[in-house]
Task: inverse folding
DNA sequence: TCAATAGTGTCTGTTAGACATTATGGA
DNA sequence: TCCATAATGTCTAACAGACACTATTGA
């Protein structure tokens, strides 16, 4: 059984590890150390001198056995909600796991992000924050690419975007925008998936390009 | 002199308070408590039971005498860099101050954000994070409006956007997009600024509108 | 052959930016 | 009057979405 956290630890680092399973996103949960009936996000009390980013990476590796293909801090959570540790504050990270190749360590399982088991309120907030972070940085960082294997079809890429955005996208528009962005390179491979014409495989290989200049957006509804 | 932080405090809450002074952004700094020759961001050790948001608000009020018109958490900073307190980690917030009406408390002064005095490395990173946060949520939240007084001209609003974005904007396009967003209401007042035709005053009053549906963007250059 | 999916060409309505023009005050 | 700024109308190129069509496989 995991050792009880020291009373001196006033903050933890928690990881929301996300992968795509079929047509939905999944997060990795482990058995709660104090109550084996319940589940919790992987977390860790940083060693002295350990950076936050390093602690998050270690947390992910301890739970998964491998490092996420992409990690980013979500923020600090601590609005009086309960946490498996006795820490006042938890610094949350979101991490992406490319395929579902990784075999979680003992006691860890993937759960659908839309329908997780009961979590401590603060961890519940972190999961919500993770999906929000992924959506909002979807067009600023290669989130979808980091959730896919090294080679993929354009339909798979579009489905990943649709999964992350929670809405359908227009096929021709999607491919036009993708081509203009110089992000993928076609391979000399095709993949046949049941019936229908086989799809060409691509890999993520961003090339130099001019910064897209967009106009101002006023996308907020209310204060 | 400010009391020395307790050795038990493992994290602080720091506030990056931003206002617009003329043609540049400014941040509020106070004298460092241990070395009066140096400057630092306002910060605070949260009381037990105090939420992070509440601690950030209190930090701002203690330094300014008033609450910011908008606050948001930037994230947790702690990559081994030094901080005026002995905390391992600092949770940073950015706050907006509408005009420069507020008179900072003793020992506090506004500094240009582009050219601040020497800061502790971790606080320097928080200031950079603050401008990045403002830029990236500029089209998701009424940042520019919260930096302006209650009534303003459209030129002032555009100049605020240009200041935050660091680039010039097209006047006609800016006003078209603004009108389509139903965010401002014209007043029955005009203001004459030196020569030229007087400008009509507006106030921020967002109205119901349909969510704008945008296509996918691939705005990142490299991994 | 039909069904299903990949991939592309064309059209159209919307929009961002360029440009020009009018409006209205102060010097 | 001239000049500076506000405010707006028109044109054009770019682009997003709709639609239709071709291409290529398995059943």
Result:
């Amino acid at each position: 059984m995991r050792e009880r956290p020291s009373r001196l630890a006033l903050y933890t680092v928690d990881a929301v590890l996300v992968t795509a399973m079929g047509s939905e996103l999944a997060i990795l949960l482990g058995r709660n150390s104090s109550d084996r009936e319940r589940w919790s996000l992987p977390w860790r009390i940083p060693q002295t001198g350990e950076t936050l980013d390093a602690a998050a990476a270690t947390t992910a590796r301890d739970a998964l056995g491998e490092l996420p293909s992409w990690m980013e801090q979500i923020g600090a959570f601590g609005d009086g909600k309960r946490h498996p540790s006795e820490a006042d504050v938890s610094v949350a990270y979101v991490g992406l796991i490319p395929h579902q190749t990784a075999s979680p360590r003992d006691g860890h399982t993937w759960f659908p992000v839309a329908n997780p088991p009961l979590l401590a309120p603060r961890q519940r907030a972190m999961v919500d924050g993770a999906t929000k972070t992924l959506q909002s940085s979807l067009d600023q960082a290669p989130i979808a690419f980091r959730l896919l294997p090294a080679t993929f079809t354009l339909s798979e890429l579009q489905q990943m975007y649709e999964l992350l955005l929670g809405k359908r996208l227009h096929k021709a528009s999607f491919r036009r925008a993708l081509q203009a962005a110089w992000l993928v390179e076609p391979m000399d491979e095709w993949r046949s998936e049941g019936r229908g014409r086989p799809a060409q495989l691509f890999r993520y290989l961003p090339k130099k390009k001019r910064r897209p200049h967009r106009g101002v957006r006023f996308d907020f509804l209310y204060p």
Remarks:
- The two ends of chain B are 47 Å apart (CA to CA).
